Amino acid sequence: MGFAGFLCLLALAVTSTARMMKRLGRRWVTRHRLAYAAGVCGVVHSLWLVKADLSTPLVYAGILAALLGSRFWFRGSRGAGPRRTPR
To answer: How many CB atoms lie within 10 A of CB 41?
Structure first.
């Protein structure tokens, strides 16, 4: 899982330059959703590493859940964009 997360982050690093963003176009946004997978891989990796005390990986999982939850919460509350007043 750690190596899978590393590969996700490596793909993000390679495609984060301005030239790659221009080259990929709208596919760049899709590619950069790998950040979610990298976060999940990191939490699973830390869960697999510990033997006795699961408190630290569970804190990591809680932080990741809060961050992803807030991301999706605020994305849904944005709506279709700014409202325009009729003239």
So the answer is: 20
